[in-house]
Amino acid sequence: MENRVLLITGASSGIGEATARAAVAAGWSVVVSARSEDKLERLAAELGDRALAVRCDVTEWDEQVALVDRAVAHFGRIDAAWANAGFGGERSFFGDSPERWKSMVLTNVYGAALTFRATIPALKASHGHLLITGSIAGRRAIAGSLYSATKHAAHAMAESARQELNGTGVRVTVIAPGVVDTPFFANVPIAQPLHADDIARGVMFALSQPPHVDVNEVVIRPVAQEL
Predict the structure, then answer these.
(1) Are strands 80-83 and 5-9 parallel, antiparallel or unpaired?
(2) What pLDDT is attached to residue 224?
(3) 225 in a domain, yes or no?
(4) Is 142 part of a structural domain of the chain?
(5) What is the value of pTM for the model shown?
(6) Which of 28, 75, 82, 147 is catalytic?
């Protein structure tokens, strides 16, 4: 995996940050992106010359294009791109404001689609790997959860991309975590959740397969999770 380049949105904390660290340890270079510029710069400084920090709001097309342009200008290529930016909400159709709903749908669905659109040309050139963060909540409906609907969309988007990219050499993977102890949860709902490093290992497993092997979905639950 030496000299390969992984672009990650939503990389300033949680599983995105943990995966950036794991990728650099495995010999990758990384482009870490999020809206939290200070956190990105600290992470890139820790990771050294193999990391490039680029602020990007994934809901803005021009910023996604600029992100890809800077990645290619700096490292010369993109071998994998992970649409990981996203956030959750209340499990009730009356729990969040309509404004938060709009932001969540734009980030989790529209933003991920823009990441696909922006990175696919570079991934075709490298016969690379496209990833998206799904969820256990994207594999079954959860009562009152608009977040669950956005993650169903992520799983569907990945399969749509896989079909469109068939024959190009680009692989497509959904990373579908269960409960992970990250800033995503204000209060972690189970006693023994996963940790961000657990998901990072799943990402690196998918990325490390031979070119003819496409791991389409990586589902990772903690042992104690019922859903």
Answers:
(1) parallel
(2) 75
(3) no
(4) yes
(5) 0.93
(6) 147
